[in-house]
Amino acid sequence: MTRGYRIVIALVLLEAVTVAALSVAGSAASRVDDQARQSNRRLVREMLLTDLALSTGTSYCRHPSQTDLFAPYGDHPSAIEHFPAGSIMAPPAVSTPSTATGPGP
Amino acid sequence: MRRHLRILDFAIANLRRRPAKFLVVVLVYSILVAALASLMMFVDAVRREARSLLDGSPEIIVQSLRGGRHELIPVERADAIRAIRGVGSVTPRVWGYSYDPPTGATLTFWGAESVPDESLAFEDQELSSGELVGGCVIGSGLADLRFLGVGDRLPVKGYDGSLFAPKVVGIFESSSSILTNDLVVWPTDDLRRVFAIDPALATDLAVEIHNRNEIDTVAAKILDRWPDARVITRDQIFATYDAAFDWRGGLWAAFMACCVAAFAILVWDKGTGLSAEEYRTIGLLRATGWKSREVMELRVFEGGLVSLVAFLTGLIIAQIHLICFDGFVFARVIKGWSVLFPSFEIVPVLDLPTLLICGSLSLVPYIAANLVPSWKASVTDPDSVLRS
């Protein structure tokens, strides 16, 4: 017998410990950023912001929660989307008078 | 226990007999687990970040529609909405967009009289009270793009072509760029002049509701009173971002489904057809007195070892990809992209659902695919197995 299982068990344990250590490292990084996050929350509250500045190319990508349902097709019905970010933007979850206040799509 | 360890030892010896095959399977398997875990953690982290930040956004936004399109809303409606039971403050918001030809970026102009001090990057002679008297505060992305500093002027074209050049009195911290990257915060009255918005009108109304449970009721009352209104609740804002990130994650998942399918075919091919050598090994073990149960245990150990090592390696690669490299493989598609693209760090969390989903998609099929043919071979008469 080579007792190879000892090496393999050690390898598996080492990997498991590494996974756990990396998880802790991720959480630690989160705590470091807490102050900036608090500051950003206050900014949202005081300035009444509703959206993230992720894609600024067009209004429906910059403020997806505030946009019209048909916004990407503003040029004409079934217009082909021409903004890269808009191509991967899901429909906004807004309500219209006909859909009352239920959660959007 | 000793017997199990000996079987495990034998399984390891079996794997070491074909090191290249073992390593290739572990490598492909690890990459697959890493991609899957990265994607799940990345989408979850971005979604969590969005929810965490936007938790302070207004409970209800009231817009006005005309012909199905967004229209400026009369400010006088604010008083009527304020009279609804449960409503706190109602604040008219004035904001809009302006295209910036030199950079090709679309900027967001936001009407406000002040900004929180802690969100500003302070240097000498910079804005000290957060008050915007005749000046503007801009996002760090815009400042970098236009090479602007405090004291410089930002040229802006008004609605009639006239030129405005507000002085930059502050720049937002880069840590807030996820919210302010393209933002130009300007006193509301000045912004009204630039966009020609009458003082009796606003872009929309932000409604504060004291009790979260009353949000839907108040929204329904507003819709009932003004049929041309559109209300957007905070939950709908969350739902929008959940949908956006799920959608984007789904795009990647669809792409990865091809890889998963390829791996499944590999596993199936390997699992359903034992090689002649493996078949012969099982026959020999049975002929030398191994029981079917022990042969099965051997195969479980072999499959389990490959799966476990690959699974853990995949998780390590996924976490390093997210923590050290900010998930660069998925970042552009999940976050989006534009001329003014904010940089923000994500905080990956390896939670139980991620572990269970990755584990069930990777560990179970491989072990199962190993077991079925081995069981068939191990219950067959050793003599016929060896002769075949």
Short description:
The complex is a heterodimer of chains A (105) and B (388). Chain A is mainly α.
Write the SSE topology.
The complex is a heterodimer of chains A (105) and B (388).
Chain A (H helix, E strand, L loop, with lengths): L3 H29 L1 H14 L11 H4 L21 H4 L18
Chain B lengths: L1 H16 L1 H36 L5 E7 L2 E3 L1 E2 L2 H6 L4 E7 L1 E6 L4 E7 L23 E4 L1 H6 L10 E2 L5 E2 L2 E5 L5 H4 L2 E4 L1 H8 L5 E2 L1 E6 L5 H11 L3 E5 H39 L3 H12 L4 H32 L4 H8 L16 H27 L3 H6 L1
Parallel strand pairs in B: 6-11, 7-10
Antiparallel strand pairs in B: 1-2, 1-13, 1-14, 3-12, 4-13, 5-6, 7-11, 8-9
Helix pairs in contact in B: 1-10, 2-8, 2-10, 2-11, 2-12, 8-11, 8-12, 10-12
What does this structure look like?
The complex is a heterodimer of chains A (105) and B (388). Chain A is an all-alpha fold and 105 residues long. Chain A is built from four helices and no strands. Chain A has helices at residues 4-32, 34-47, 59-62, 84-87. In chain B, strands 1, 2, 4, 13 and 14 form a five-stranded antiparallel sheet that branches. Chain B has a five-stranded mixed sheet with strand order 5-6-11-7-10. In chain B, strands 3-12 form a two-stranded antiparallel sheet. Chain B starts with a helix and ends with a helix. In chain B, strand 5 (95-100) and strand 6 form a beta hairpin. With 388 residues, chain B is α+β, with helices and mostly antiparallel strands. The model of chain B has no long low-confidence stretch (mean pLDDT 84). Chain B is elongated. In chain B, helix 8 (234-272) runs parallel beside helix 12 (352-378).
